[in-house]
Design a protein that fits this description.
Chain lengths: ~300, ~325, ~325
């Protein structure tokens, strides 16, 4: 109750209420989030269940068009799956990988940042040098190369089974320096403050100081970076899947759906590409807008990543 | 008799999100041909803003909200932008505070000089170069034929400020506005630049408005002084009178604070308190919270700038008679 | 200055050795040079003999040194699919990619600089607002979607522009060029427009931000006080100072563009290095894959090094004159 009251009177909520872009973005994202969590309940068909799919339904246009079928509101894809259901499950996969990758990279980045900032010295300069190198490489390309190599190494069959965790790890690994640098800067800033010194004087161990005192103070910038990074991760995943290096078509993300539909755009089946594409752009856009807003409110000086 | 410059009841405001802030509140000045006027005051008093308002070059969100600026009878603040451009750098030149920042780093000195001439006079580039070289000699730049082809970063600070002065002289202006021209320079170079300015104004019959916080500099160079406080003129009069017989308590405080006016070994005098920021200027006389002789009326009414002993010397104070 | 260049080149060499090591490990672990050479139909005993002949049973570091030596000589191994030296295959595909990147760079310069400057000079005009809004949406738009939208409208619906392949090319001293035929130029339009859409929002924002910063400086205020024409203040005084940081970022991004061609080339079936790379993945052509990694690595490192050295030349002057 207390923290709810504090939140109710906070500047965060105040500026949120005054910003229509933030409100709309937040609502859209919340709706998309709920839909993807409840996908098995909400989606008209379970597209992972091959028994419900009839190849004869393939490439049915949306209901309002000629030849439309009222069973499939947005039409079907090339395998005869209900497009709306496939998109809902695809959204779920995209969000899962996006959020998973960000959780992974923030874990790695925060850990490196804290170690770097707390211990300093040669370890610090080594880790930061590593971050610099990682930073100077275009992350999407690193991810494309790595996924390509795994695909060749594993062979297509096993690769498709492992695609989801691999995507999370590889997209996650390519972006950790963002977190490491920010957290390291915060730790260095906090390290010499009086409350940390005081805690050490009364005999609390270094590790405890780190986790109980410094970590909560670095959460604001981490939150801002994470929002923008989720959008980046979803975009990377979509690009990889579009290249055939991501999720297989049996368990598609939005990117693999677009890839599958793209080949049929010339024969006039535009909807298989169009609807997942629009959904993907909306998803990324609302996250980016929300991230921009958060950055302006929480920390106007934070580097735009 | 017509003045070179006449500023009447000038008012400058800054349009901000939560309303307008008044930076200059009813400033009136006159300057005759070839006359040198100093404007002094603490930072934030509105000295620089007055200077930029005269050439109508206030940075956003500042704007002139009332009053008039007349140059030889021509009203400047109502001129169309293109006509005003023809006056800037031509009839009125400006010298800025920091010579390190005033010159464009990627253009040669020659380019930055002749473009000014070409913007205002119908001459060829060769003629413009000759004028530029002539002015560089006037500000005592050695081997100016070589210097003119260099970039600003190849010159020292004092050298650059002399180049800026030379640029100000290019079009033989009727008035030069110098905004803290020596603050960013070494003390030895300060005197050099001030001497140069004084000498040039006298020989070329140019008017000078010298904006500074340094009373010492003003007393050596100018003929008249205006003391500004919180966007208003507190006292204005002939330099010798204002320096040796200041009437306004603020001016008195400023002069007492000068180290030169003290016996060796005694402590520096300070005016207690700080100048108010634009957001909370006190009612009545803006100086009353810091004033040692303030009265009840000072808190209620804004004092008018009225002449006292003789016509030329005016102060804005309720108490001093 | 000389020491700086030497240091920068040594750094570049180290980075290349690391990339080479990564490439070598990949080849060592998942590649199969015997298969690449003689195919699948050999007995285990014969395989062992060939492995010995190829030196595949030598210690790891000896093989790595040999790999680097060969790479320096331009020998990156044989492509399993093409039965040709991998470098030769890549170089045959390079003109397509390089031409695509060149046209993209041209579009980036021609569009981003004027619109960035305009948005900086008139930040409140409706045109600037549209530019900024479009660039916000542009950031959220994956490049392959931009490409698909372009193909759908200009290729399928309107049928104005070709949407796949390079069209008619001319062979100039071994360089397959699409620059000299109308058909080749037409084929370049859609791929280069979509490739430029990745960087365009970034560049417009960069030019705008730099220009706005310069417009606030004292020397611009002094230029106004000199009574110069506004065109001169904007395009000579302000723009020249904006250019420097923009060029630097541009140089670095050019290296990244080469890599981003993988996406664009896939959509447009553009027969360049990126397209070849994905084909190599599908065909498990490890040698070609590693060769591509090394070639792109070289391009990236060389571009970065050159940009750094150029910046090192220009920077001291700016540091003395501009900021402090």
């Amino acid at each position: 109750m207390k923290s709810w009251n504090r939140f109710k009177n906070s500047y965060l909520l105040y500026s949120f209420k005054r910003d229509p872009v933030a409100i709309i973005s937040f609502c859209v994202l919340a709706v998309l989030g709920v839909i993807s969590i409840l996908a098995p309940v909400i989606a008209p068909y379970n597209t992972y269940d091959t028994a419900t799919i009839d190849i004869m339904d393939a490439e049915t246009p949306p209901t309002w068009m000629e030849d439309g079928d009222e069973r499939f509101i947005l039409g079907t894809d090339i395998q005869g799956r209900d497009l709306l259901s496939t998109m809902i499950f695809g959204l779920r996969v995209s969000l899962l990988i996006g959020v998973g990758a960000v959780l992974f990279q923030s874990f790695v980045g925060i850990l490196v940042g804290i170690i770097s900032g707390f211990f300093g010295g040669k370890l610090d300069s080594f880790l930061m040098r590593l971050a610099d190198i990682q930073f100077s490489l275009p992350y999407l390309i690193v991810a494309i190369f790595t996924m390509a190599i795994f695909k060749v190494a594993f062979g297509i069959g096993r690769y498709e089974d492992l695609a989801e965790p691999l995507l999370i790890i590889i997209i996650g690994l390519s972006q950790w320096p963002h977190y490491a640098r920010t957290v390291r800067a915060s730790v260095l800033g906090e390290k010499n403050k009086e409350y940390v010194e005081a805690a050490r004087v009364i005999g609390i161990s270094r590790q405890l100081i780190m986790f109980r005192h410094i970590l909560p103070n670095t959460m604001t910038p981490v939150l801002v970076i994470s929002t923008i990074q989720v959008a980046n991760a979803i975009m990377s995943e979509a690009a990889l899947s579009f290249l055939g290096l991501g999720m297989p078509i049996t368990r598609p993300s939005l990117g693999s759906l677009i890839r599958a539909g793209f080949e049929y755009i010339f024969s006039g089946s535009w909807w298989i590409t169009f609807f997942p594409g629009v959904l993907l752009v909306i998803l990324i856009l609302v996250i980016l807008l929300l991230g921009d807003w958060l950055r302006d409110v929480l920390n106007p000086k934070l580097y735009k990543g | 008799m017509s003045h070179l410059l006449e500023v009447k009841d000038l008012e400058v405001k800054f349009a901000l999100r939560f309303g307008d802030l008044t930076a200059i509140n009813g400033v009136s000045l006159t300057l005759d041909k070839g006359e040198r006027l100093g404007i002094v005051g603490e930072s934030g008093a509105g000295k620089s803003v007055t200077g930029f308002a005269i050439i109508n070059l206030l940075s956003k969100p500042g704007y002139i909200s009332a009053g008039r600026v007349l140059l030889e009878g021509q009203e400047l603040n109502r001129l169309p932008e293109e006509d005003m451009r023809k006056i800037r750098g031509n009839r009125i030149s400006m010298i800025f505070q920091d010579p390190m920042m005033t010159l464009n780093p990627v253009l040669t000195i020659k380019t930055q000089m002749i473009e000014t001439i070409l913007a205002h006079a119908n001459v060829s580039k060769t003629e413009a170069t000759d004028i530029a070289l002539d002015k560089l000699k006037k500000v005592h730049i050695p081997s100016s034929e070589k210097r003119i082809h260099q970039y600003p970063h190849e010159c020292s600070g004092g050298m650059r400020q002399r180049i800026v002065v030379a640029i100000a002289l290019l079009t033989n202006p009727a008035l030069i506005i110098a905004d803290e021209p020596t603050t960013a320079l070494d003390v030895t170079i300060q005197a050099e630049i001030m001497d140069l300015l004084q000498e040039l104004c006298a020989s070329e019959k140019m008017g000078l408005i010298l904006i500074t916080h340094d009373l010492g500099v003003v007393s050596q160079v100018t003929e008249r002084i205006a003391v500004m406080y919180a966007g208003k003129i507190a006292e204005i009069g002939p330099t010798q009178v204002v320096i040796h017989d200041p009437q306004h308590p603020y001016t008195q405080g400023l002069i007492k604070a000068l180290p030169g006016s003290l016996q060796p070994g005694s402590r520096l005098n300070q005016i207690p308190g700080m100048m108010p920021t634009l957001t909370d200027i006190p009612p009545g006389c803006a100086f009353h919270p810091r004033c040692t002789i303030s009265d009840t009326i000072c808190r209620m009414e804004v004092p008018a700038l009225i002449s006292r002993h003789d016509h030329d010397h005016m102060i804005a104070c309720h108490v001093v008679k | 200055m000389f020491a700086f260049i030497v240091r920068r080149i040594i750094q570049a060499i180290i980075v290349m050795l690391v990339i080479g090591l990564v490439g070598f490990i990949i080849q060592h672990q998942i590649g199969d040079p015997v298969r690449d050479l003689v195919g699948e139909r050999v007995t285990p005993a014969e395989r062992e003999v060939i492995r010995d002949q190829l030196g595949l049973n030598d210690p790891f570091y000896i093989q790595y040194v040999r790999f680097v030596k060969n790479a320096v000589k331009g020998d990156l191994g044989l492509s399993f699919f093409y039965k040709k030296p991998a470098l030769e295959v890549i170089l045959a595909k390079a003109p397509a990619t390089i031409e695509l990147v060149l046209v993209t760079a041209l579009i980036l310069i021609v569009v981003s600089i004027p619109s960035g400057i305009y948005a900086a000079i008139y930040p409140k005009s409706w045109f600037s607002r549209i530019i900024m809004a479009v660039s916000t949406i542009g950031v959220a738009m994956p490049v392959f979607l931009t490409a698909i939208v372009l193909i759908y409208f200009f290729g399928v619906e309107l049928n104005w522009l070709p949407s796949y392949g390079r069209g008619e090319t001319v062979n100039l001293w071994g360089w397959e060029s699409g620059f000299f035929t109308l058909d080749g130029l037409k084929h370049l339009i859609l791929p280069s427009v979509s490739l430029s859409s990745i960087m365009l929002p970034l560049f417009i924002r960069l030019v705008r931000a730099e220009m706005m910063e310069v417009l606030e400086t004292e020397y611009i205020k002094f230029a106004w006080a000199k009574g110069l024409h506004r065109q001169r203040v904007w395009y000579i005084h302000a723009f020249k100072n904006t250019l420097l940081p923009v060029i630097t970022v541009f140089g670095v991004q050019l290296g990244i563009l080469v890599a981003f061609t993988i996406l664009t080339e896939t959509v447009f079936q553009w027969q360049g290095m990126g397209f070849m790379f994905l084909e190599a993945v599908e065909r498990s052509d490890t040698t070609l894959l590693v060769a591509y990694l090394i070639v792109v690595g070289v391009i990236f490192v060389v571009v970065n090094t050159i940009v750094d050295i150029i910046y090192g030349f220009v920077n001291p002057m700016v540091r003395i004159a501009g900021t402090k």
